[in-house]
Amino acid sequence: MTPTKLITGPTYAEMLDPSKIDSDIRKKALKIREKDPLDPLNLYNISWKDSNNRIYYEVLPEALTSVDAPVVVLYGKEFPTGSHKVGATYSVLIEKAIKGEVDPSRHTIVWPSTGNYGIGGAWVGCRMKFDSVVILPEEMSRERFEIVTGYGARLELTPGCESNVKEIYDRCHALKKADPERVRIMNQFEVFANYRFHYSVTGNTLIELAEIMEKEGIGNGRIAAFVSAMGSGGTIAAGDRLKQRWPGYHKIIGLEPIQCPTLFANGYGGHDIQGIGDKHVTWIHNVMNLDAIMCIDDIETKMGLQLLTEPAGWRVLCDRYGISEEKVQKLSQIFGISGVCNVLGAIKTARYYGLGKDDLIVTVCTDALDRYHSVMAQMNQTCGSMDETEALVRLVSIFHKQKLDWIAEGTRNSRNRWHNLKYFTWVEQQGKTIEELNAQRSQEYWEQQQSEVEATDRLIEVYRKA
Questions:
Q1: Would you call 405 exposed, middle or buried from its count of C-beta atoms within 10 A (0-12, 13-18, 19+)?
Q2: What is the pTM of this model?
Q3: Chain segment 398-439, per-residue pLDDT in tens
Q4: d(CA 239, CA 414)
């Protein structure tokens, strides 16, 4: 069978700087953005930047964080699927497709996920004309299931919640065994294109953001810490780029749920910070570069999201703490559960390291409330509705007084322990070798992965011209 001509999208360089996209294609993509969100031209809208090349970010008010260090969030809701994970899914698929490893005329693409990666896979895979299957745990939010099927993919549900990734792997193996010639697994926890998207695109976007912040009188032109909860281990790769830019200064802080403290305590358990804390250490996570692990309570993240997205919380933030109504409404539109988790981790980071007004902390809001209405409805049933008194209590207890417990610094011994945990998933279960695992101890291994960005871009450019 003759391979199908691929539908391609942007290079890594174009995702970082959309002004590098052919001007006619860029204009058409921007025009189709609102008119037809399912048009494949929207692949060219995968970026942290808007139509004027301005970065999607928000500076959090000190009245919310209560720390001197400025906290800034990149927010992903403006990406084509409402989450920056679509950048990782596109990168994973385009790298494999451009090298001839997958073909829409012959292969079914399987996206193992606990949420936004699967949503991104459904959108990207179907836009690139691949038969696409998304695997999700059955306890994820109802909205996730509806979005996946709405994008044209099929769903496979596995037992459990956010942290039940072993069950997802088992389903992948079963699907592959049933049709080995057709099924191809796009494993976000293993495939380095996920890492490369965040190292190259997210990381370099943040370097630009630090310069913008300095011009606005915020920070000193450097980023003191990048804070990110780990799901696939992709987003936190941005920290590797930042540490190269500011060696000896920048810190990479990883976050986990208290209810599933895998790196912190070799722990396990179910939790509801959807998108993170998957009960194993991913293959693409450079734990030897991690400066600390901090754990966040999943109930606090959901209570914090209610504070930011419900009228009682808005009144407290505006009337009692003087935050502008415009700012409060903007915050209500850019946060999901994991975004609140990341901000609580940023507050913890500022307090633990004693960071001050010049020490910029950056984190990410992966998605927004549209994925969690059912979760918030369940919170109201179990915890009761939130009035202004309760909103004030939450602001003070969860944000202003975020505790300095559940923190483990990245010493030589702890980094070795974090690395060694990969053995049980990747060597015993997923077929990696000891030699491959040992190679990951060296930063040269990760630099080699980073160096493939330019080669991939050249392959895409050559394919376009063919």
A1: exposed
A2: 0.95
A3: 999 999 999 999 999 999 999 999 999 999 999 999 999 999
A4: 18
Backbone angles phi, psi at 75, to 5 degrees: -120, 140
Burial of 174 (0-12, 13-18, 19+ CB in 10 A): exposed
Q: Which amino acid is at 397?
A: S
What are the CB-based long-range contacts (under 8 Å, 24+) for 240-248?
A: 240/199, 240/203, 240/286, 240/289, 240/446, 240/450, 241/199, 241/200, 241/202, 241/203, 241/204, 241/206, 241/207, 241/450, 242/203, 242/206, 242/207, 243/289, 245/207, 246/222
Per-residue confidence band for 165, with pLDDT thresholds at 50, 70 and 90: confident
For 409, what's the count of Cα atoms within 13 Å in the CB-facing half-sphere? 6
Answer yes or no: CATH 3.30.450.20 is held by domain 57-81+193-409: no
Query: Which of 178, 73, 180, 165 minimizes the C-alpha distance to 118?
Result: 165
Handedness of CA 113, 116, 119, 123 (dihedral sign): negative
Q: What is the pLDDT of residues 116-152, one digit of tens each?
A: 899 999 999 999 999 999 998 887 777 888 999 999 9
At 96, list the tokens: 């494999």
For residues 350-363, average pLDDT: 98
Report domain extents, the chain. 57-81+193-409
Contacts of 193 (CB under 8 A, 6+ apart): 88, 91, 92, 94, 95, 96, 456
Asked if 377 contacts 384 with a C-beta cutoff of 8 angstroms, the reply is no
Element (H, E) at 338: helix 337-353
| Per-residue model confidence (pLDDT) at position 215 | 97
Using CA atoms, how far residue 292 sits from 280, 310, 345, 356, in Å, is 17, 33, 11, 19
pLDDT band at 160 (very low <50, low <70, confident <90, very high): confident
Amino acid letter, 297: D
